Amino acid sequence: MFRADRGRKHLDDKERAAIIAYTNDGKSVRFISDRLGIAIGTVSLWQTRYAETGDIIRKNGSGRPKKLTAADEANIALAVEAKPITTAQEIAGKMLLILIRVPAPSFEFLKEED
User: Fold this and answer.
1) What's this model's pTM, rounded to 2 decimal places?
2) CA 70 vs CA 5, 7, 36, 98, 108: distances in Å
3) Same structural domain for residues 41 and 91?
4) Residues 68-77: pLDDT tens digits?
5) 22 CB contacts (<8 Å, ≥6 apart)?
6) Range of the structural domain that residue 95 is part of
7) Any domain includes 88
8) Are residues 26 and 79 in the same domain?
9) Are 2 and 54 members of one domain?
10) Residue 107 DSSP label
11) Which of 97, 64, 65, 66 is CA-nearest to residue 79?
12) 48-106, pLDDT tens digit by residue?
């Protein structure tokens, strides 16, 4: 039913829905796996998850959390829009100056004492 050479990691909504539809029709895990071209373990996982939650939505990934805030992302977008040919180092340097908010240098120490 779905392409044999999947070439991607996650099932889309149609594939997950097909698993549940075949399950509700009483089809075996092996049949569903062969028919959809999806590994048996994946079919079983989605059957179990649907039975527990009643939903076919993927869980959020457990990858590395974002370090950028929405404001940081907006600043990057503005920097790229202002100067489309910009290196990542230039953007990082500008953001660093914004984050640190370095005050203008003080040259009081250069004044001669009376």
Assistant:
1) 0.51
2) 37, 32, 39, 15, 38
3) no
4) 888 888 888 8
5) 31, 32, 35, 36
6) 70-101
7) yes
8) no
9) yes
10) -
11) 97
12) 999 998 888 887 776 788 788 888 888 888 888 888 888 888 877 777 776 665 555 55
